[in-house]
């Protein structure tokens, strides 16, 4: 929904240079293009808790009307995000959470539910029995903690699947690759490897590829559309499966707008998820390509409207000058 009121929305992103977060930002900008009176300030903390804290302080000093934040690690960011909330500046937390629950709204998928779904899928695939490897994300991130908790709840209650190895991949392909390479013999012995995002799943795959093990079942999380990302990798048979983890950029802006315009909004905005494997990846890819194409058309149309507006404004100025000079003459 558009508004003529002027507001400043700041977005503090924990880390910026991966395809998943670029998609999130793209979505936000697209949604913001419907509200030209919103000033949007974006800060990327590059995976650094200190830096993110500092950036949020600076945003506060600058003066903002609302903060959207994806906190790097929960504990270290809780204090500063709480202080924003306590200053009565609305806070929308997205993807990852702080430890306190002091925010107006959360936008993101339910990571605990994703972990459970992954566990059920693994049990089903293994027919209830086997040994798996787990690759976790950065230790203090709520997404990693909650995914692990959900996964373990399901596996613990089944009691028939062993955890043969756990590595801490930091959410990064390269880190995960290096650690997997160091543990390659143990990795080889697992029936399934589950990495808590697709990038780390790719890292494990890279290590396996080096020893000619291309068939090992590796599962990721995100299932991001687009070239070189998770969804495509499933279609090509490179990843065994992944769980959809929507970025929620559009919903985060919509929620922010509702708060600023004093409209009703929900505190928990949980985005849907599902298991994507060989059976449905093709269909998902087709549909996401189609949506991407439509988005492209919308962007083009928006550009046209902007150009028309500029021409119109220019003509209005010329006309004003003309009228003024006529009156003066
Ligand atoms: C991107 C990412 C995703 C993951 C999410 C967890 O930076 O690592 O791959 O699902 O963050 O917060």
From TrEMBL:
This is histidine kinase. The chain holds residues 41 to 369 of 936 of the full protein.
């Amino acid at each position: 929904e558009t508004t003529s009121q002027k507001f400043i929305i700041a977005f503090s992103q924990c880390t910026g240079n991966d395809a998943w977060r670029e998609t999130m930002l793209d979505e936000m900008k697209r949604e913001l293009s419907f509200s030209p009176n919103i000033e949007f300030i974006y800060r990327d903390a590059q995976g650094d808790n200190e830096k993110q804290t500092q950036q949020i302080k600076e945003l506060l000093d600058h003066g903002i009307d609302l903060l959207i934040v994806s906190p790097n690690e929960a504990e270290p960011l809780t204090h500063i995000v709480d202080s924003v909330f306590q200053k009565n500046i609305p806070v929308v937390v997205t993807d990852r959470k702080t430890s306190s629950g002091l925010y107006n709204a959360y936008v993101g998928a339910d990571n605990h539910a994703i972990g459970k779904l992954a566990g059920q899928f693994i049990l089903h695939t293994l027919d209830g029995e086997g040994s798996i490897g787990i690759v976790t994300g950065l230790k203090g991130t709520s997404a990693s903690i909650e995914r692990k908790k959900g996964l373990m709840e399901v596996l613990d209650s089944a009691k028939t699947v062993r955890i043969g190895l756990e590595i801490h991949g930091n959410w990064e392909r390269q880190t995960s690759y290096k650690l997997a390479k160091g543990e390659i013999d143990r990795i080889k012995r697992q029936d399934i490897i589950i990495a808590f995002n697709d990038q780390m799943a790719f890292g494990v795959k890279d290590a396996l590829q080096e020893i000619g093990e291309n068939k090992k079942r590796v599962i990721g999380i995100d299932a991001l559309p687009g070239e070189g990302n998770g969804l495509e990798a499933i279609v090509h048979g490179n990843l065994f499966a992944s769980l959809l983890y929507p970025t929620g950029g559009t919903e985060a802006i919509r929620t922010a707008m509702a708060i600023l315009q004093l409209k009703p909004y929900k505190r928990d905005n949980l985005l849907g998820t599902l298991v994507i494997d060989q059976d449905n990846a093709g269909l998902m890819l087709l549909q996401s390509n189609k949506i991407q194409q439509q988005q492209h058309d919308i962007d083009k149309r928006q550009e046209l409207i902007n150009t028309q507006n500029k021409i119109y404004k220019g003509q209005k100025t010329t006309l004003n000058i003309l009228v003024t000079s006529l009156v003066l003459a």
